[in-house]
Amino acid sequence: MIISSIFGFISGIGVGSFFYINLGIFLALGFLIIIFFIYKNFVPEENRRVLVFISIFLLGTLCGLARVTFSNLYTTSQLGSFVEQKISTEGIIVGEPDVRENNTKLTVRLSQVNFLNSTTSVSEKILVTTSLYPEFHYGDKVAIVLTLKEPKNIDSGDGHVFDYKGYLKVRGIWYTASFVKISLISRGHGSLIKTGLFKIKHAFTASLNRVLPEPESSLMAGLLLGTKQSLGKDLLLEFQKTGVSHIIVLSGYNIAIVATSIMSFLSFLPKSFSFSFGIGSIILFTILSGGSASAWRAAIMVMAALVAKRYNRDYKASRVLGFAIVLMLAPNPLLLIFDPSFQLSVLATIGIIFVSPLIFPYFKWVTKKWEFREIISTTIATQLTVLPFLIYNTGLFSLVSLPVNILILATIPTTMFLGFITGIAGLISLYLSFIPAFFAYILLWYQLTVVHIGASLPFGSILLATFSPLVLIFTYLIIFLFLYFLKKQTI
């Protein structure tokens, strides 16, 4: 019955994201739930379970509809009257600056707006694009002269449109501003924990940058911390063409390594202490990495696994995935429809949990050395669940994804280990970090070379035409039927 409530909650959010539900529909749905719940007492025992299932599903749907109705999707902005007007503002940078190749994007929570000799108090975030220098940091209070713009969806030119407006609303941002005049007022207005974590992150990445050249150092930062913007557009496109963008997105694998390493290091302490430090390290590491939707999904699942192991409970990944989805959608229901990283993360996890076990037996002929069999089955499983969605959003169909993944995935754990040692050693002594950095560089160079060759092949990827959401749904229906048949064959 828990499953029916989860599916109902997700369905309610999905429907409510496309259609505004008025009070009359809420009352009608609530009345229908009461009817089903009462009617179950007057039917035979074999039909009662079905009615209970429907009642719980509809109740979950009602909760999902209610949650999305009171989300950022249907609330109005405090800054609406200032759009397209030149205004003077003050605010605090509430997120880690997103440093790109040619600019820096700052998330600023405005506290006041000065316009036409009057001051208005506000509390709302905007996204500001400014030059690389001077540098600003999390927690800085700044004064900005800007013109607010309503964000527009991004058209790639080949018919694929990215809902940038919805993507920003997920993050509580209604408006953007570019080419602003910005100046520092004061520092130190952020959370002490976040400030400390970002300082550690900057010191660690600076340690990597001192001994590793570009783009190897940026790739290492992506592997360890999930930061990928500094790789540049051209290299990111190569990762997309070869289907290996997932290696630079913080996953459960990265987070599990951090947690288990800390717990092993503190194994001499009582189990309750090492366990608590492990859970705390996951939360802090996720915040340090930027706290993306995919990172938090992975963090929740890893923490659930640690709790299950600590208290000798069964760990059912499917139920934990449902719990993680609901736990993330409850505070921010817009993730379901408007955040591609959340969608891809969930689809990939579904592939690993449900599809990979069905495919794995068909690759008994593949050697287990270097985990080749697991890599192949997992890659195919995730491609089955993720590829239709990726093609729908980007139009890119990678023909070299499988061989490229096979060639580089086995080297990733060693690369991450060497990168971690390099970064830590560099904080102690520059010369000490040269030894692990040398071996890390060889692996990073190899990975980048494989990606570059795969992306350079004329048949490496195909740009497909746009298609409707109905085609996407039909495609997943065919995949589901295929997997259902495959499961019947293995029983």
TrEMBL record:
NCBIfam families: ComEC_N-term. Residues 23-183 form the DUF4131 domain. GO terms for cellular component: plasma membrane. The keyword Transport does not apply. It is a multi-pass membrane protein. Residues 223-487 form the ComEC/Rec2-related protein domain. It is found in: Cell membrane. This is ComEC/Rec2-related protein domain-containing protein. Coiled coil: none annotated. InterPro entries: ComEC_N, Competence_DNA_uptake, DUF4131. The chain crosses the membrane at residues 7-38, 50-70, 247-269, 275-308, 320-338, 344-363, 375-400, 406-431, 438-455, 461-486. Keywords: Cell membrane, Membrane, Transmembrane, Transmembrane helix. It comes from the Bacteria. Pfam families: Competence, DUF4131.
